[in-house]
Amino acid sequence: MNKIFKTKVNNTFDFEIDTEDVTKLDAVEVSKSKFHILQNNKSYNATIVEHNFNNKAYKIKINKNVYEVSIFNDLDFLIKAMGFAIGSSIHINSIKAPMPGLILEINVKVGQEVKEDDTLLILEAMKMENVISSPRDGIIKSITTQKNDAVEKNQLLIEFE
Hints:
With 161 residues, the chain is mostly beta strands. The protein has two domains: 4-81, no CATH class; 94-160, CATH 2.40.50.100. Helices cover 9% and strands 52% of the residues. A hairpin with a 2-residue loop joins strand 6 (57-62) and strand 7. The longest helix has 8 residues, at 74-81.
């Protein structure tokens, strides 16, 4: 199946490249980010200077010129049309109990600034301690439970500002 990729170079030039075009390209990997390319009997040295996989954006140096390249396929356009964004930031405003259990420890206070993956609390469920971590950077707005409280599944535990 021949896939088509839409590319934008230096936010100016738009190209369509299909898998057949790519297979015709004679490229040899010299190192992890360097390639030697032959196309139409011309030699090119290419280096991937920067890459952002989530945004599908690359900065590529070919011979002595640097190009900014974005590559998109049909799925990328569909995701964008549906209003979703790949790699977008998480914006969760509350933490709810993932299961019934007992609050063993609360590691934060109201007004405290937390970073993504900081431990918020420990919930014991089925004789196992479950660490509940912050899904994002933020400030604790409220804590609706206390140490040694029994909680039900989906019960509100912590709110972010």
